[in-house]
Specification:
399 residues, alpha/beta, 7-stranded parallel β-sheet, binds NADP nicotinamide-adenine-dinucleotide phosphate
């Protein structure tokens, strides 16, 4: 970036101008920590939250941002004078396509991330993507939009970030497939008979990663891994059959690349989301060095086992829906979002998350997903259907 001169002859900002969507979340806070560690590399120009306006106002003051977005109906926060405050989906889309931004980080959770992802790629912005739901719900639309605008899509998810790095320099003709590692989630050692009634506290206690609530519950059901398979399908243009999942309890090897000569490439690192976040934020430049070296002697033993998919009924539900295509993955992802919120609120049992996803897939007729309107319409219908199923299940639970 350093030597670039704009057509008007004005030297551009040397720092990357960054919009952080979902800055109050687990990924968003790590993004700001990386930016704070590299004040010469990044200028945070806009931020967003849904409800947590107090933290958002504090972040806006700390980073001196000019624009923020919050949810519709969120109470007025005490933002510094002059900060422009937008509300709702349109304001997120505006931040994502802002011409004054070089890099958009999408750290939103759930279906709310889809419209800003599309806005960013359609506007040709570089997009550092944590919101995997965007690719699950509309991977084809996002890929097509990025191809036509030339937008760069850089993954933040640790498995995909490591594949992104390993695949550099691997000719397509030598690529046999990829392997995503799975920690097995918080319930990996619970007897199968106890999984369905696991409590919220146990489910939110992840053994290796410190993450937001939804992705932690999704790790326990393995919906997260099914979504990551779909994410890999679209990011790396691979058929589902060439994407495998292996259980790796230590979360040190983030993924493996299978080569046609029968060998594997692996990427190893400590489980700290700031590493892939930093890599995505610096892309295509080399990342800065704010981490200690990862020494093999400190990593301990590494183990790989097949996943017992029988313990995780949601995995096949979500992946089968993705294989089916059209609006099926929209229905599955939306139902999962509704079910996870209901589980965390104590309205349904853990084992009923699968019932909500299966019920919504059975209740809502899937169709084609030629454009974002079709995707959003399917999301609305699925949200309503899943809400009704949750209503019935929670009525039974309270009796
Ligand atoms: N956390 C991780 O380590 C991790 C790792 C890999 C991938 N990911 C992926 O990264 C994404 C974010 O995960 P996270 O764990 O950071 O989530 P999180 O902690 O729940 O944060 C979500 C962010 O999105 C905002 N938000 C929530 N609902 C919204 C809505 N309806 N409209 C607009 N904004 C909304 C939240 O605002 P409020 O704070 O105001 O609610 C918050 O800023 C997910 O797709 C997840 O799968 C996360």
């Amino acid at each position: 970036m350093g030597g670039r001169v704009t057509p008007s002859g004005t030297p551009p900002s040397v720092r990357k101008r960054v919009a952080v969507l979902g800055s109050t979340g687990s990924i968003g806070r790590n993004v700001l920590a990386v930016a704070a560690a590299h004040p010469d590399a990044f200028e945070i120009v806009s931020l967003s939250a849904f409800r947590n306006v107090d933290l958002l106002a504090e972040q806006a003051a700390r980073f001196g941002v000019g624009k923020v977005a919050v949810g519709e109906g969120t109470p007025q926060g005490s933002f510094p004078d002059g900060v422009e405050i937008g509300r709702g989906r349109a304001s997120l889309e505006a931040l994502a396509s802002d011409p004054g931004v070089d890099l958009v980080v999408n750290a939103l959770v759930g279906a709310a991330g889809l419209a800003p992802t599309l806005a960013a790629v359609e506007a040709g912005r570089t997009l550092a993507l944590a919101n995997k739901e965007s690719l699950v719900m509309a991977g084809e639309l996002v890929s097509r939009a990025a191809e036509s605008s030339g937008a760069a899509l850089v993954p933040i998810d640790s498995e995909h970030s490591s594949l992104f790095r390993c695949l550099k320099g691997v000719p397509r003709s030598e690529l046999a497939g990829v392997v995503l590692t799975a920690s097995g989630g918080p319930l990996r050692d619970l007897p199968t008979s106890e999984i369905a009634s696991a409590g919220v506290e146990a489910v939110l206690d992840h053994p290796t990663w410190d993450m937001g609530e939804k992705v932690t519950v999704d790790s326990a059901t393995l919906v997260n891994k099914a979504m990551e398979v779909v994410e890999a399908r679209w990011l790396f243009d691979l058929p589902f059959e060439r994407i495998e999942v292996v259980l790796h309890r230590e979360s040190i090897v983030h993924s493996l690349v299978r080569l046609t000569d029968g060998t594997l490439l692996a990427h190893l690192g400590l489980p700290d989301m700031k590493v892939p976040i930093q890599y995505a934020m610096f892309h295509p430049d080399p990342p800065g060095g704010i981490f200690e070296d990862c020494r093999p002697g400190a990593l301990g033993s590494l183990h790989f086992e097949p996943v017992d998919f029988g313990r995780y009924p949601c995995y096949d539900l979500v992946l089968d829906a993705a294989r089916q295509g059209g609006t099926s993955p929209v229905i599955a992802a939306t139902a999962d979002e509704v079910a996870v919120a209901a589980f965390v609120d104590g309205r349904i049992r853990f084992g009923e998350i699968a019932d909500v996803i299966a019920g919504a897939l059975a209740a809502v007729a899937a169709g084609d997903a030629p454009d974002v309107d079709a995707v959003l319409a399917a999301e609305e219908t699925a949200r309503e259907a899943a809400g009704q199923i949750v209503g019935r299940l929670s009525g039974a639970l309270s009796q």
